[in-house]
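subagent[fold] <- orchestrator: predict structure for attached chain, return tokens only, no commentary.
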Amino acid sequence: MNWKEFLKPDWRKIVLMFIFVMLTSIIKNLGILVRTEIIDYYGFPFPFYGKAGLFEPPQPYRTFFDPIALIGNIIILYLLSCLIVWIYKKVKKK
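subagent[fold] -> orchestrator:
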């Protein structure tokens, strides 16, 4: 298998990537229960969107969006899904 085949999109790789995106969102939301601040970041391994502020009402939220981090997350999660599909194919052949 060459790099072109390894990186070629198919339905398994795309579905796996979306599952990883959903799992990282769920894992992120579990951590907010133990904090004293509202910190709401999206993205793994790089946070690409978020807002933060204190629980007290007069404090405004600070928000940010980083498109480079979003692209980095998509690339990393897609490469991870390619690797998993490749390993699955190797094991299935044996």
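orchestrator: received. Logging for downstream: The chain has a mean pLDDT of 78. The beta strands are 37-42, 49-54, 62-65.
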